[in-house]
């Protein structure tokens, strides 16, 4: 099946199911799937004063190029929650936990996702796995440049075999910088256990036996001084995180 067709199918289903044309504030994520989400929203939006909260420069340009009105996250009025936020993911497990950060936008993505009444993750069939880090091998972590080596050492102590600074020789010599001017470290770990795995005795999930549960590894990494954000999205504040999967164009939630 054509991956692009699957992305478009997932995006159109997600917007049909979760975009209310009368919405006032809508979060827009980063990556390539989100492009189809914005296209679908453009077809359905009827509220001329709806404002779109981007999750980085790419997301903001996408909103502007679609003729939609962006608003910066720090301009959202106090106590206002976004009606809905749409974003992609690099991997999604059976409990709707996500690995995010393939596009190095995870910090603003998490800010926006947590500010939304509903977080809609739009992901084609390639992203859906039983456990995180099955197909996508690493946890993206945004760190203050000065803390890079220290965080890498701490990640090794947590069991990451070979944490690597993200560089891209194609566009720039040297490390990639995020929209916050921070670095990204990609840390490989064994597949992350779900809470059901731990309940079933598949491992302790606290690192003591070499296994990690999704929330435990996320908290352990987030606790390292120098870490700004971790590319693990779980629970989403109890929001109704919907992971949509397009399989051969058909959809299953
Ligand atoms: O960086 C992210 O988390 C993005 O949402 C991204 O990785 C998903 O990108 P894709 O839609 O191009 O696969």
TrEMBL record:
SUPFAM superfamilies in the record: D-ribose-5-phosphate isomerase (RpiA), lid domain, NagB/RpiA/CoA transferase-like
Keywords: Isomerase
Single Gene Ontology BP annotation: D-ribose metabolic process
Sequence intervals crossing the membrane: none
Enzyme Commission number(s): 5.3.1.6
Cellular component terms per the entry's GO annotation: cytoplasm
One GO MF term: ribose-5-phosphate isomerase activity
Pfam families: Rib_5-P_isom_A (PF06026)
Pathway in which this enzyme or protein is active: Carbohydrate degradation; pentose phosphate pathway; D-ribose 5-phosphate from D-ribulose 5-phosphate (non-oxidative stage): step 1/1
Catalytic reaction list: aldehydo-D-ribose 5-phosphate = D-ribulose 5-phosphate
Family per record: Belongs to the ribose 5-phosphate isomerase family.
Protein name as it appears in the record: Ribose-5-phosphate isomerase
The species this protein was found in: Neocucurbitaria cava
Lineage: Eukaryota, Fungi, Dikarya, Ascomycota, Pezizomycotina
């Amino acid at each position: 099946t054509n991956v692009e067709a699957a992305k478009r199918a997932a995006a159109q289903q997600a917007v049909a199911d979760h975009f209310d044309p009368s919405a006032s504030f809508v979060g827009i994520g980063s990556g390539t799937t989100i492009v189809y989400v914005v296209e679908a929203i453009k077809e359905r939006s009827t509220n001329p004063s709806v404002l779109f909260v981007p999750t980085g420069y790419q997301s903001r340009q996408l909103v502007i190029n679609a003729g939609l009105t962006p608003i910066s996250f720090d301009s959202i009025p106090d106590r206002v929650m976004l009606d809905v936020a749409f974003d992609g993911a690099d991997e999604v497990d059976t409990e709707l936990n996500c690995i995010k950060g393939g596009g190095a936008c995870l910090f603003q993505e998490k800010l926006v996702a947590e500010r939304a009444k509903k977080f809609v993750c739009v992901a084609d069939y390639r992203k859906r796995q039983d456990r995180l880090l099955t197909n996508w091998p690493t946890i993206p972590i945004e760190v203050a440049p000065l803390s890079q080596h220290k965080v890498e050492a701490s990640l090794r102590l947590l069991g990451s075999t070979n944490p690597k600074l993200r560089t891209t020789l194609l566009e720039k010599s040297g490390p990639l910088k995020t929209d916050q001017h921070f670095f990204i470290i990609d840390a490989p770990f064994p597949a992350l256990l779900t809470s059901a795995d731990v309940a079933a005795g598949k491992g302790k999930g606290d690192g003591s036996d070499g296994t990690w549960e999704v929330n435990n590894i996320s908290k352990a990494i987030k606790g390292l001084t120098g870490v700004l954000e971790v590319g693990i999205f779980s629970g989403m504040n109890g929001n109704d995180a919907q992971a949509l999967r397009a399989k051969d164009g058909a959809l299953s939630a």
